[in-house]
Amino acid sequence: MSLTPSIGGTCGPHFFYAEMGELISNSGDEHFAATMLQLVGKWVPIHLVDLSEWTLDELRDRVLGIKLLGSAGVKKDLSVPQTLHALNDHPLLRQMLHMQDPLLIQMNAKANSAHPRGTSHQCNLVSRQGNRRCVISFYRPPTQQGFSLAELSFLKRLSDTLLPLMERHAQSLRQAPRAETEPAHTLLEQSQLKREFYKRLSLSDITLSAREQEVCLGLLTGGTVPQIAEKLSVKNSSIETYLKRAAAKLGVSGRHGLAKWMVGA
């Protein structure tokens, strides 16, 4: 199923933007997978998420390596190592080798599967960057029903935000120093996000008021409307007003649109 951009505005009126902001700010962090699981799990029941980066040899149609970049949820007896063995007969490989557009690949549970997680129902979101594939895999126990068409449709719409964030997460992990304390890492991520926000604002030649900038940054770094309102000593309704004004100037629709604008989706 090809994932050509089809999302016109938001994923729905009840989209929890604070968690999307937290997901953005956790890019490159060990909590990224858990935040994604919490966000998606509010609409689609899933028991586990794996984030992986595949490196392919497209000329020889084979896998050079598969690296797990994060995992969260109820693993039970489905544990996998941090670095997976190259599996040239993996069922995902055939569809990912010469892909151009992002994909959604559904796989139903198989009782005697020889592949990692193959005994669970799964929905895989895949994007391409050269010979790399970023893969977000959502799993459901074989004792439950597989993913419905409505759930797959929802994940398809959400993928054009999740996949760019996954690519950013993978890039951050490749570039980040290995020895880093958690508080310093969190502060670094927030600082980088702020720099990227102002850079994108400058390139867009758009002027936001100081308050509009504070509200946008507050939401992008995971703050809630009440938290930002308390910090700025204003009412919750004022925060919503600042957001609406900023969204109008940026040409986006609401909170989800701001997140998509930030990651360039």
UniProtKB/TrEMBL annotation:
Instruction: Give the range the annotation lists for the signal sequence.
Output: none
Q: What is this protein called?
A: LuxR C-terminal-related transcriptional regulator
Q: Name one Pfam family in it.
A: GerE
Q: Which InterPro entries match?
A: Sig_transdc_resp-reg_C-effctor, Tscrpt_reg_LuxR_C, WH-like_DNA-bd_sf
Q: Species lineage, top-down?
A: Bacteria, Pseudomonadati, Pseudomonadota, Gammaproteobacteria, Pseudomonadales
Residues covered by the HTH luxR-type domain:
222-249
Q: List the source organism.
A: Pseudomonas paracarnis
Q: Which domain of life is it from?
A: Bacteria
